[in-house]
UniProtKB/TrEMBL annotation:
<dbReference type="InterPro" id="IPR000163">
    <property type="entry name" value="Prohibitin"/>
</dbReference>
<protein>
    <submittedName>
        <fullName>Prohibitin</fullName>
    </submittedName>
</protein>
<feature type="compositionally biased region" description="Low complexity">
    <location>
        <begin position="349"/>
        <end position="359"/>
    </location>
</feature>
<dbReference type="GO" id="GO:0045861">
    <property type="term" value="P:negative regulation of proteolysis"/>
</dbReference>
<dbReference type="InterPro" id="IPR036013">
    <property type="entry name" value="Band_7/SPFH_dom_sf"/>
</dbReference>
<feature type="coiled-coil region">
    <location>
        <begin position="228"/>
        <end position="297"/>
    </location>
</feature>
<comment type="similarity">
    <text>Belongs to the prohibitin family.</text>
</comment>
<comment type="function">
    <text>Prohibitin probably acts as a holdase/unfoldase for the stabilization of newly synthesized mitochondrial proteins. Involved in mitophagy; may act as an adapter for ATG8 that supports mitophagosome assembly. Negatively regulates the proteolytic processing of ATG32 via the i-AAA protease. Acts as a negative regulator of the m-AAA protease.</text>
</comment>
<dbReference type="Pfam" id="PF01145">
    <property type="entry name" value="Band_7"/>
</dbReference>
<dbReference type="GO" id="GO:0005739">
    <property type="term" value="C:mitochondrion"/>
</dbReference>
<keyword id="KW-0175">Coiled coil</keyword>
<dbReference type="InterPro" id="IPR001107">
    <property type="entry name" value="Band_7"/>
</dbReference>
<feature type="region of interest" description="Disordered">
    <location>
        <begin position="336"/>
        <end position="359"/>
    </location>
</feature>
<dbReference type="GO" id="GO:0000423">
    <property type="term" value="P:mitophagy"/>
</dbReference>
<feature type="domain" description="Band 7">
    <location>
        <begin position="103"/>
        <end position="264"/>
    </location>
</feature>
<dbReference type="GO" id="GO:0016020">
    <property type="term" value="C:membrane"/>
</dbReference>
<dbReference type="GO" id="GO:0007005">
    <property type="term" value="P:mitochondrion organization"/>
</dbReference>
Length: 359
């Protein structure tokens, strides 16, 4: 709407300037032109520009026998009438358009307006989105952005154990809509720049001073919650709503950082040594258990041999022979097992595959 009114006003101004130029040019031709003699049913001396104007003019004269001066007066009269018409119609129309444009204003999406009256001051009413009207010159619309805006607050302070801490705080804030007239009266459009850095630095220093440097690392969520709670309470006093408050960066001095690194290295070495000790203990226990198992197995074998004689040995031979035969059968290579008693015959051939256990 405002763009259309701007175009109309621009075209109207150009039209008025063009008409004014035509009137001035016509008067200049009539009054200040040089003389040029020409015979046209008379011996009068004729202005040069008037003669040119007659030669190139297209209107048809009502009385062809009239003089060039009569023709020029007729043309000048038409221009004067046209100028009068412009002054009666176009000028009021242009003034009306300009007045209408000055009486309208737009409130875009996500914004609100507060009206400042030169007689009454700031009106205690918040204007919503859309096109609205006001009294030109007497009233002025002040536009506020009520969307959430991010802001970064950075400060350097000391912890409880006197360690330097650099903190970066991210704050998402917006004004309380129904309190916009109060905010404009007391803080202005740059309310966030006036309030948030001041109360943010104050709260950061007061909260961080209650924790040691190590606690700031291990209890970061607790510290962030404390800062959010206190900052929201203070911002509410200035009619500012906080959507989110969080610590984005936290750095310490070089000495503390180096000490923390050395402590972490020592802890890692201690954990590694503890692991090696536990591993040796476990290996020792495993060896003891394995030795005890072997002793019990040997005792059981001895008792079985004493009780059953060669019968147990024959069973073990058969089991071993079965395993060897299975392995050889699955092997792609051909293996030759010599028989020590092949030339003598007898029982030696039966014991060659049994590994002669017990001889």
């Amino acid at each position: 709407m405002n763009q259309l009114l701007d175009k109309i006003e621009q075209y109207f101004v150009q039209f008025c300037l063009l008409n004014l130029f035509c009137i001035k040019f016509t008067r200049l031709i009539k009054k200040k032109s040089c003389k040029f003699s020409i015979s046209h049913n008379s011996n009068k001396s004729l202005p040069f520009f008037s003669y040119c104007f007659k030669q190139f003019s297209f209107p048809v004269l009502k009385y062809p026998t009239s003089s060039i001066d009569h023709y020029f007066d007729h043309t000048y009269t038409m221009s004067q009438r046209f100028a009068d018409l412009i002054s009666k119609i176009a000028l009021p129309a242009g003034l009306t358009i300009a007045l209408a444009q000055a009486s309208m204003y737009d409130v875009p999406g996500g914004k609100r307006a507060v009206i400042f009256d030169r007689l009454k001051g700031v009106e205690q009413k918040v204007i919503g989105e859309g096109t609205h009207f006001l009294i030109p010159w007497l009233q002025k619309a002040v536009i506020f952005d009520v969307r959430v805006e991010p802001r970064v607050i950075t400060t350097t302070t000391g912890s409880k154990d006197l360690q330097n801490v650099s903190l970066t705080l991210r704050v998402l804030s917006r004004p309380e809509v129904r309190k916009l007239p109060f905010i404009y009266q007391n803080l202005g459009l740059d309310y966030a720049e006036r309030v948030l850095p001041a109360i943010g630095n104050e709260i950061l220093k007061s909260i961080v001073a209650q924790f040691d440097a190590a606690e700031l690392i291990t209890q970061r969520e607790v510290v962030s919650a404390r800062i959010r709670q206190e900052l929201s309470r203070r911002a509410d006093e200035f009619n500012i709503e906080l959507e989110d408050v969080s610590i984005t960066h936290m750095t310490f001095g070089k000495e503390f950082t180096k000490a923390v690194e050395q402590k972490q290295i020592a802890q890692q070495d201690a954990e590694r040594s503890k692991y090696l000790v536990e591993k040796a203990e476990q290996e020792k226990k495993a060896a003891i258990i394995r030795a005890e198992g072997e002793a019990e197995a040997a005792d059981l074998v001895s008792k079985a041999l004493a009780k059953a004689g060669d019968g147990l040995l024959m069973i073990r031979r058969l089991e071993a022979s079965k395993d060897i035969a299975t392995t050889l059968a699955n092997s792609p290579n051909i293996t030759y097992l010599p028989n020590g008693d092949s030339g003598k015959g007898g029982d030696g051939s039966n014991n060659s595959l049994l590994l002669n256990i017990g001889r």
